[in-house]
Design brief:
By secondary structure, this protein is of the alpha+beta class. It folds into two domains: 32 residues; 95 residues, no CATH class. Helix content is 34%, strand content 13%. The protein has five helices and four strands. It has a two-stranded antiparallel sheet. A two-stranded antiparallel sheet has the order 2-3. Strand 2 and strand 3 form a beta hairpin. The longest helix is centred in the first third of the chain and has 21 residues. The radius of gyration is 23 Å and the shape is elongated.
Length: 170
């Protein structure tokens, strides 16, 4: 075999190996974290259920004490909102982000919504473009999803109810 034949065989193999390393891992990829810092915030599922049930009970009592449609039309409380992993990653990847802050907001329909912002190590909200250029998606009826350029936050979670599912994983 001459050198050209060896080069013609090895070059494609080397290119495939090099470029295959550029693809982000899929499937079981784990986001690195500090287990000691995270452990300060861990609670048992029993405590989580108790907190969720306590909110549900208080919400029912509030609705019973304020009759009529006011709460549904002007202050519609969700049980939760689901946020996409990529949305959270975009927040955590913001330059200087050490934490997330979740604000309660209210949309034009009176629905209480969660607004997520990256926060620096001093506890200051970071104002940054999370999705640069025209990659931000326009969602009909949700003005915050069309924000392009300038400082951005995350919203447009899936409200619970109606979209609520619980799956136990081990």
């Amino acid at each position: 075999m001459n050198q050209n034949s060896i080069r013609n065989i090895l070059l494609p193999i080397i290119l495939v190996l090099v470029f295959s390393q550029c693809t982000p891992p899929q499937g079981d990829f784990k986001i690195p974290f500090d287990a000691v810092k995270a452990s300060r915030h861990v609670i048992s599922m029993e405590e989580a259920e108790s907190l969720k049930n306590g909110f549900q009970d208080a919400k029912k009592e509030l609705y019973a004490r304020i009759p009529g449609k006011y709460l549904d039309s002007a202050f519609n409380l969700p049980d939760a909102e689901l946020f996409n992993r990529d949305a959270l990653a975009a927040l955590l990847n913001a330059k200087g982000a050490k934490n997330l802050r979740i604000y309660l907001g209210r949309d034009e329909k009176g629905q209480v919504r969660f607004v997520l912002l990256p926060v620096d190590s001093a506890g200051v909200d970071i104002q940054v473009t999370l999705i640069p250029g025209n990659r931000a998606v326009s969602v009909p009826g949700i003005s915050s999803a069309t924000a392009q350029g300038g400082a951005q936050a995350m919203e447009s979670g899936q409200r619970c109810p109606p979209l609520c599912k619980t799956v136990e994983t081990k």
